[in-house]
Sequence to fold (278 residues):
Amino acid sequence: MIPSASHRPAAVAGLFYPDDRAALRAEVRAHLAAAHPVPADAAPPKLIVVPHAGTVYSGAIAAQAYAWLARWPGRWKRVVLLAPAHRVHLHGLAGPSAAFFDTPLGPVPIDRDALREDEPGAGSGTSDLAPGSRTVAIDDRVHEREHAIEVQLPFLQEVLGAFTLVPFAVGDAQPAAVADVIERLWGGDETLVVISTDLSHYLPYEKARAVDAATVQRVLALDARLGHEQACGATPLNAALAVAARHGLRPRLLDLRNSGDTAGDRERVVGYAAFVFT
Fold:
Protein backbone atom coordinates (compact mmCIF):
# COMPACT_ATOMS: atom_id res chain seq x y z
CA MET A 1 0.00 0.00 0.00
CA ILE A 2 1.32 3.49 -0.78
CA PRO A 3 1.98 5.64 2.32
CA SER A 4 -1.10 7.25 3.82
CA ALA A 5 -1.35 10.97 3.07
CA SER A 6 -3.94 13.63 3.73
CA HIS A 7 -4.26 14.48 0.01
CA ARG A 8 -4.58 12.11 -2.92
CA PRO A 9 -3.04 14.14 -5.77
CA ALA A 10 -4.68 14.32 -9.18
CA ALA A 11 -3.40 11.34 -11.18
CA VAL A 12 -4.82 11.95 -14.66
CA ALA A 13 -4.83 15.75 -14.95
CA GLY A 14 -3.14 16.56 -18.23
CA LEU A 15 -4.12 13.15 -19.59
CA PHE A 16 -7.89 12.75 -19.21
CA TYR A 17 -8.63 16.44 -18.72
CA PRO A 18 -6.68 19.73 -18.69
CA ASP A 19 -4.21 20.20 -15.86
CA ASP A 20 -4.52 23.99 -16.00
CA ARG A 21 -7.17 25.35 -13.62
CA ALA A 22 -8.54 27.98 -16.01
CA ALA A 23 -8.55 25.65 -19.01
CA LEU A 24 -10.28 22.89 -17.05
CA ARG A 25 -12.95 25.22 -15.72
CA ALA A 26 -13.56 26.62 -19.21
CA GLU A 27 -13.90 23.13 -20.69
CA VAL A 28 -16.29 21.92 -18.01
CA ARG A 29 -18.43 25.03 -18.33
CA ALA A 30 -18.50 24.70 -22.12
CA HIS A 31 -19.76 21.12 -21.86
CA LEU A 32 -22.41 22.14 -19.33
CA ALA A 33 -23.53 25.09 -21.45
CA ALA A 34 -23.96 22.78 -24.47
CA ALA A 35 -26.13 20.30 -22.55
CA HIS A 36 -29.83 19.99 -23.32
CA PRO A 37 -32.08 22.21 -21.19
CA VAL A 38 -33.51 20.54 -18.10
CA PRO A 39 -37.29 20.18 -18.51
CA ALA A 40 -39.34 22.65 -16.52
CA ASP A 41 -41.18 19.84 -14.71
CA ALA A 42 -38.04 17.86 -13.89
CA ALA A 43 -37.48 16.48 -10.40
CA PRO A 44 -34.06 16.48 -8.75
CA PRO A 45 -32.23 13.18 -9.27
CA LYS A 46 -31.11 10.93 -6.44
CA LEU A 47 -28.84 8.85 -8.68
CA ILE A 48 -26.95 9.55 -11.90
CA VAL A 49 -24.95 7.32 -14.23
CA VAL A 50 -22.11 8.96 -16.16
CA PRO A 51 -19.17 7.85 -18.35
CA HIS A 52 -15.54 8.19 -17.33
CA ALA A 53 -13.34 8.55 -20.40
CA GLY A 54 -11.23 11.62 -21.10
CA THR A 55 -13.30 14.76 -21.43
CA VAL A 56 -12.62 15.00 -25.18
CA TYR A 57 -14.33 11.62 -25.54
CA SER A 58 -17.12 11.52 -22.96
CA GLY A 59 -17.24 14.94 -21.30
CA ALA A 60 -20.15 16.13 -23.42
CA ILE A 61 -22.19 13.05 -22.50
CA ALA A 62 -21.41 13.26 -18.78
CA ALA A 63 -22.32 16.95 -18.82
CA GLN A 64 -25.90 16.09 -19.76
CA ALA A 65 -26.39 14.57 -16.30
CA TYR A 66 -24.33 17.15 -14.45
CA ALA A 67 -26.39 19.95 -16.01
CA TRP A 68 -29.40 18.51 -14.17
CA LEU A 69 -27.60 18.96 -10.86
CA ALA A 70 -26.97 22.61 -11.61
CA ARG A 71 -30.74 23.16 -11.64
CA TRP A 72 -30.90 22.68 -7.83
CA PRO A 73 -27.91 24.54 -6.38
CA GLY A 74 -27.07 23.78 -2.77
CA ARG A 75 -29.21 20.63 -2.60
CA TRP A 76 -26.51 17.97 -2.42
CA LYS A 77 -23.92 18.04 0.35
CA ARG A 78 -22.51 14.53 -0.04
CA VAL A 79 -21.70 12.40 -3.10
CA VAL A 80 -21.39 8.61 -2.89
CA LEU A 81 -19.39 7.72 -6.01
CA LEU A 82 -18.76 4.16 -7.19
CA ALA A 83 -16.57 3.21 -10.14
CA PRO A 84 -14.87 0.06 -11.42
CA ALA A 85 -11.24 -0.54 -10.47
CA HIS A 86 -9.21 -0.46 -13.68
CA ARG A 87 -5.58 -0.78 -12.54
CA VAL A 88 -5.41 -2.93 -9.41
CA HIS A 89 -7.15 -6.26 -8.91
CA LEU A 90 -9.58 -5.97 -6.04
CA HIS A 91 -11.97 -8.19 -4.14
CA GLY A 92 -14.89 -6.17 -2.85
CA LEU A 93 -14.77 -2.38 -2.60
CA ALA A 94 -11.96 -0.04 -1.61
CA GLY A 95 -12.05 3.44 -0.18
CA PRO A 96 -9.02 5.71 0.23
CA SER A 97 -7.19 6.72 3.39
CA ALA A 98 -6.77 10.30 2.12
CA ALA A 99 -8.72 13.17 3.62
CA PHE A 100 -8.92 14.99 0.25
CA PHE A 101 -8.92 14.17 -3.46
CA ASP A 102 -7.20 16.96 -5.37
CA THR A 103 -7.99 18.31 -8.84
CA PRO A 104 -6.77 21.51 -10.53
CA LEU A 105 -9.99 23.11 -9.23
CA GLY A 106 -8.98 22.41 -5.63
CA PRO A 107 -9.32 19.71 -2.96
CA VAL A 108 -12.49 17.66 -2.47
CA PRO A 109 -12.96 16.58 1.17
CA ILE A 110 -13.58 12.90 1.84
CA ASP A 111 -16.37 11.95 4.25
CA ARG A 112 -14.11 9.90 6.51
CA ASP A 113 -16.92 9.14 8.96
CA ALA A 114 -18.99 7.53 6.19
CA LEU A 115 -16.04 5.41 5.08
CA ARG A 116 -15.36 4.26 8.64
CA GLU A 117 -19.01 3.39 9.16
CA ASP A 118 -19.04 1.31 6.01
CA GLU A 119 -15.76 -0.50 6.60
CA PRO A 120 -16.27 -3.54 8.85
CA GLY A 121 -12.52 -4.08 9.12
CA ALA A 122 -11.61 -0.45 9.71
CA GLY A 123 -7.93 0.22 10.10
CA SER A 124 -6.68 -2.90 8.32
CA GLY A 125 -5.38 -0.91 5.34
CA THR A 126 -5.51 -3.87 3.00
CA SER A 127 -7.58 -5.04 0.04
CA ASP A 128 -6.34 -8.64 0.21
CA LEU A 129 -9.83 -9.93 0.79
CA ALA A 130 -10.88 -13.48 0.15
CA PRO A 131 -14.04 -13.71 -1.98
CA GLY A 132 -17.06 -13.77 0.29
CA SER A 133 -15.31 -12.08 3.21
CA ARG A 134 -15.34 -8.39 4.15
CA THR A 135 -16.83 -6.20 1.43
CA VAL A 136 -15.05 -2.89 2.05
CA ALA A 137 -11.41 -2.08 2.77
CA ILE A 138 -9.16 0.97 2.76
CA ASP A 139 -6.57 0.58 0.01
CA ASP A 140 -4.69 3.48 -1.53
CA ARG A 141 -3.08 1.28 -4.17
CA VAL A 142 -6.45 0.99 -5.88
CA HIS A 143 -6.99 4.76 -5.91
CA GLU A 144 -3.44 5.89 -6.67
CA ARG A 145 -3.82 5.92 -10.48
CA GLU A 146 -7.55 5.29 -10.90
CA HIS A 147 -9.27 7.68 -13.32
CA ALA A 148 -12.93 6.64 -13.15
CA ILE A 149 -13.60 8.54 -9.93
CA GLU A 150 -11.25 11.45 -10.57
CA VAL A 151 -12.72 12.51 -13.92
CA GLN A 152 -16.10 13.11 -12.27
CA LEU A 153 -14.74 15.53 -9.69
CA PRO A 154 -14.27 18.68 -11.82
CA PHE A 155 -17.91 18.44 -12.97
CA LEU A 156 -19.09 17.93 -9.39
CA GLN A 157 -16.96 20.81 -8.17
CA GLU A 158 -18.42 23.10 -10.81
CA VAL A 159 -22.09 22.25 -10.29
CA LEU A 160 -22.22 21.49 -6.55
CA GLY A 161 -19.62 23.81 -5.09
CA ALA A 162 -18.91 22.52 -1.58
CA PHE A 163 -19.59 18.83 -0.93
CA THR A 164 -18.01 15.81 0.71
CA LEU A 165 -17.12 12.67 -1.23
CA VAL A 166 -17.51 9.00 -0.39
CA PRO A 167 -15.50 7.27 -3.15
CA PHE A 168 -15.40 3.52 -3.74
CA ALA A 169 -13.50 1.57 -6.35
CA VAL A 170 -15.35 -1.67 -7.05
CA GLY A 171 -13.67 -4.93 -8.01
CA ASP A 172 -14.82 -8.54 -7.81
CA ALA A 173 -17.92 -8.28 -5.68
CA GLN A 174 -21.44 -9.54 -5.56
CA PRO A 175 -23.88 -6.84 -6.73
CA ALA A 176 -26.01 -7.56 -3.67
CA ALA A 177 -23.08 -6.70 -1.40
CA VAL A 178 -22.43 -3.48 -3.33
CA ALA A 179 -26.13 -2.67 -3.18
CA ASP A 180 -25.95 -3.05 0.60
CA VAL A 181 -23.14 -0.47 0.72
CA ILE A 182 -25.20 1.95 -1.40
CA GLU A 183 -28.24 1.35 0.79
CA ARG A 184 -26.34 2.07 3.99
CA LEU A 185 -25.11 5.38 2.56
CA TRP A 186 -28.37 6.31 0.78
CA GLY A 187 -29.16 9.15 3.16
CA GLY A 188 -31.75 11.79 2.33
CA ASP A 189 -32.00 14.65 -0.13
CA GLU A 190 -28.50 15.77 0.83
CA THR A 191 -26.88 12.64 -0.67
CA LEU A 192 -26.33 12.03 -4.38
CA VAL A 193 -25.28 8.62 -5.71
CA VAL A 194 -23.06 8.62 -8.80
CA ILE A 195 -22.20 5.51 -10.81
CA SER A 196 -19.21 5.96 -13.13
CA THR A 197 -19.24 3.53 -16.05
CA ASP A 198 -18.65 3.32 -19.77
CA LEU A 199 -20.63 0.92 -21.96
CA SER A 200 -19.29 -1.45 -24.65
CA HIS A 201 -15.59 -1.43 -25.49
CA TYR A 202 -13.70 -1.60 -28.78
CA LEU A 203 -16.48 -2.75 -31.07
CA PRO A 204 -16.98 -1.42 -34.61
CA TYR A 205 -19.21 1.65 -34.64
CA GLU A 206 -22.49 0.10 -35.81
CA LYS A 207 -22.09 -2.99 -33.64
CA ALA A 208 -21.42 -0.78 -30.62
CA ARG A 209 -24.53 1.26 -31.33
CA ALA A 210 -26.66 -1.89 -31.36
CA VAL A 211 -25.11 -3.35 -28.21
CA ASP A 212 -25.35 -0.06 -26.32
CA ALA A 213 -28.96 0.51 -27.38
CA ALA A 214 -29.86 -2.88 -25.92
CA THR A 215 -27.98 -2.05 -22.72
CA VAL A 216 -29.86 1.22 -22.39
CA GLN A 217 -33.17 -0.59 -22.62
CA ARG A 218 -32.13 -2.88 -19.78
CA VAL A 219 -31.10 0.09 -17.64
CA LEU A 220 -34.41 1.81 -18.33
CA ALA A 221 -36.18 -1.39 -17.29
CA LEU A 222 -34.09 -1.50 -14.06
CA ASP A 223 -32.81 -4.90 -15.19
CA ALA A 224 -29.87 -5.53 -12.84
CA ARG A 225 -28.33 -8.35 -14.90
CA LEU A 226 -25.83 -6.48 -17.04
CA GLY A 227 -22.52 -8.07 -17.96
CA HIS A 228 -19.11 -6.46 -18.14
CA GLU A 229 -19.14 -6.68 -21.92
CA GLN A 230 -22.09 -4.27 -21.77
CA ALA A 231 -20.68 -1.90 -19.12
CA CYS A 232 -17.24 -1.88 -17.54
CA GLY A 233 -18.90 -0.75 -14.32
CA ALA A 234 -21.56 -3.46 -14.50
CA THR A 235 -21.15 -4.48 -10.86
CA PRO A 236 -21.83 -1.05 -9.29
CA LEU A 237 -24.41 -0.31 -12.00
CA ASN A 238 -26.33 -3.53 -11.32
CA ALA A 239 -26.21 -2.76 -7.61
CA ALA A 240 -27.52 0.77 -8.20
CA LEU A 241 -30.31 -0.50 -10.43
CA ALA A 242 -31.44 -2.89 -7.72
CA VAL A 243 -31.44 -0.12 -5.11
CA ALA A 244 -33.20 2.26 -7.50
CA ALA A 245 -35.96 -0.28 -8.04
CA ARG A 246 -36.26 -0.77 -4.28
CA HIS A 247 -36.73 2.97 -3.79
CA GLY A 248 -39.12 3.47 -6.69
CA LEU A 249 -36.77 5.62 -8.79
CA ARG A 250 -37.45 6.18 -12.48
CA PRO A 251 -34.52 6.27 -14.92
CA ARG A 252 -34.28 8.71 -17.80
CA LEU A 253 -31.76 8.50 -20.64
CA LEU A 254 -30.18 11.88 -21.39
CA ASP A 255 -27.55 10.95 -23.96
CA LEU A 256 -26.16 7.91 -25.75
CA ARG A 257 -23.10 8.21 -27.97
CA ASN A 258 -19.70 6.64 -28.40
CA SER A 259 -16.13 7.68 -29.08
CA GLY A 260 -16.80 7.42 -32.80
CA ASP A 261 -19.27 10.27 -32.42
CA THR A 262 -17.03 12.45 -30.29
CA ALA A 263 -13.46 11.67 -31.38
CA GLY A 264 -13.78 10.43 -34.96
CA ASP A 265 -12.32 6.90 -35.05
CA ARG A 266 -15.10 4.41 -35.76
CA GLU A 267 -13.08 1.22 -36.06
CA ARG A 268 -12.96 0.47 -32.31
CA VAL A 269 -15.24 2.61 -30.19
CA VAL A 270 -16.26 2.87 -26.54
CA GLY A 271 -19.88 3.53 -25.64
CA TYR A 272 -21.06 6.30 -23.30
CA ALA A 273 -24.45 7.06 -21.77
CA ALA A 274 -25.82 9.48 -19.19
CA PHE A 275 -28.87 8.75 -17.04
CA VAL A 276 -30.69 10.45 -14.20
CA PHE A 277 -32.91 8.58 -11.73
CA THR A 278 -35.65 10.59 -10.02
Summary: Residues 4 and 97 are 6 Å apart (CA to CA). The first strand starts at residue 7 and ends at 8. The chain has one domain: 45-86+97-116+140-277.
